[in-house]
Write the structure tokens for this entry.
Amino acid sequence: MEKKYKTYTVDELLQDDYFISSILHPTQESREFWDFLIQSGNLSAQDFEEAAFFIEVVHSPKEKLLRKEKEALWSKIEIENKSSLKKKIRTLYAACFSAVACVFILLGVSFYFFYESNQQGDDVIDMIAALKKNPDVQPGSDIRLVLSKDKQVTFEEDNTDVKYDDKGEIKVNSQTVMEGGDKDKKAGGDKEEKEATVTYNQLIVPKGKHSTLLLSDGTKLWVNAGSHVIFPVSFKGNKREIYVDGEVFLDVTRNEDNPFVVKTDRMAVEVLGTSFNIKSYGHEDTDDVVLVTGSVHVRTETGRKAELIPNQRFRCTSIGDVDIQTVDVYDYISWKDGLLQYKKERLSVILQRLSDYYGKPIRWEPELERLTCSGKLDLKDDMEKVLNGLTRMIPVKFVKQDDCYYFSVTLLNSKPME
């Protein structure tokens, strides 16, 4: 067994079940085994200590961080494009050490990733999914494609079409922003080294703008306003993983040997090939998964699991409650077609959706919370035209002040709901 670990590095230790078990549940036998490997020169003491520290940090007691604490941690972590996964893990290890030390001293809390303790920390996405966005890549007024720490491309258009191919070429609105083939030349080395190379990009879509994203495996994403997607330039290994904060509709290319996983702060959704909508905004109290075709497996951070069939909506709350209902899926995916369809929906929800979609603030009186309505709005229309349409359907009015729309109840415009 000793020979198995002779050439193991940090990232390989992090993927080894026996190593993880030894760190989380040490025994006298396991201690003696690892001490012998190190003393005999069959395992690097430095690699062992780094991997052990990382496991202990990842699986520390499950005490969630406050939003500000998460942001403080995230500010310590840079998502960099390195030449190998080993370099990524070393970089994140160093960042974790700095961040955790800071939190322990100043806040006295524990660093926590939501994934269960029996999950291997073998992908950077696992770490990203537990943290909020880097302040350096927060949404602004333009759509941004973050290619590396030092390279970002911005787009003033309201809609972008981003495409990655399997050779590494990247096109935005039919214009090439990165030539293909470079990644393999830079990676160099043998086949095993190339397979370990994982480069992560980010697509940041601010409120008021939208984008499509074609991944290297052919999977297509429709990315709604106010969303952030982190994804590999090309998928490696036996699993395809991305991270989403916001709302995305996905048409996943089927690959039975390589499941596709979407991770958010509250859950992980695994599919083989299907189409579904996922909504997970960090500032909202619920996450939704709505299945259009195929099947999906959902697992929440609290360990709740479910398998969905078409026309079902899975919803989990910030306190861990879960609800599954049969729905009209188009009510949840119409936004990708430039429409907003709703049935007996609270007006406050509709107004918030419109605010995010158009990127303009909307405020309303508390009395509006009890109002519900049904209908369909054409989001391709001007915002004020859409808002005026609402006032003809329900007894409300609005005024615009300093680029903000204020809604209130009125008894003068009481036309019955359509």
